[in-house]
What does this fold into?
Amino acid sequence: MRESVAKKAKAVEELTAKFNEAKTIVAFDYPGLTVEQFTKLRVLLREAGCEIGVYKNNISRRASEAAGIGELASDLVGAKAIVMGFDDVVAPAKIVVDFAKANKKIKVQAGVIEGKVVDAAGIIALASLPSRETLLTMLAAGMLAPVRDIAIGLNMLVEQENN
It folds into this structure.
């Protein structure tokens, strides 16, 4: 029996560490999903630098409380898969929500965005944001626009003086 308790305590400790490291956590119902569909989702998440797992309710609830996101514990009841994103804040939510649109068996339950517990609506709203790369591109384009305008203006002045 002692070994079983130690094994569970280690599982809670490992999951707590992952919760603390994750920028985004998404918990969702997955009953009815085939092994093939779940594997496809796992591959999509892995390519985006995310991790997915199915944990016992007791372990995931204890880990969420230990990680300081105890409000999530009430949503970790029943068969839940938990996705953790460590690099991109938007990617886990976007992948799960897009996958849920194609597979109606998935129901987003709740999640955590940079330490703040949110409901399904918060995860869906996050999924509607552009990816980090797209946002950075938009930022760069916005920052370069004034420089481009100045360059065009200076070029027009030079052409005007030459005429």
